[in-house]
Write a structure and sequence with these properties.
By secondary structure, the chain is of the alpha+beta class. It has one domain: 2-Layer Sandwich (Alpha-Beta Plaits). Helix content is about 20%, strand content about 25%. A two-stranded antiparallel ribbon has the order 1-8. It has a two-stranded antiparallel ribbon with strand order 2-3. Strand 6 and strand 7 form a beta hairpin.
């Protein structure tokens, strides 16, 4: 069965800055509620009092092109990481144009769209995050 969703989009006009997307992502991937570990990050501008943007993986493939071991690959439109091939050189992190890759315990992590049904989208009460 292939992935259903291939990318995420964000509408800052709908975002309240509640961080539920960050909390659910960190719990799904790392089993802790910690926005600093989230693979989707919302940037809030406290000076103007609103969310300005979200840092999301757009599955552009720049990370996979930079990987010297072929650990990053595309399946059904989503870029995924094969940790059996990853040597943690972090070339993928440097190559990411959106800054969406995270380094946790020396290893790169990126959004895998939760297997095609992104939890951040499902739990976003205002619909600021959408999957397509």
């Amino acid at each position: 069965m292939g992935l259903q969703s291939r990318s995420l989009t964000f509408n800052p006009e709908l975002c309240t800055g509640c961080s539920i997307c960050e909390l659910i992502c960190s719990f799904a991937k790392f089993k802790v509620f910690n926005p600093r570990l989230s693979l989707v990050r919302v940037e809030y501008n406290y000076e103007v009092g609103r969310v300005e943007r979200a840092i999301l993986c757009v599955n552009c493939g720049e990370c996979s092109r930079a990987c010297p071991t072929g650990a990053l690959y595309t399946a059904d439109g989503a870029v995924l990481i094969d940790y059996s091939k990853c040597v943690s050189c972090l070339a993928c992190v440097s190559a990411c144009p959106t800054g969406a890759l995270r380094v946790v315990d020396g290893k790169p992590f990126k959004c895998d769209l939760c297997g095609g049904n992104p939890l951040c989208v499902r739990y976003c009460v205002r619909g600021a995050l959408r999957a397509s």
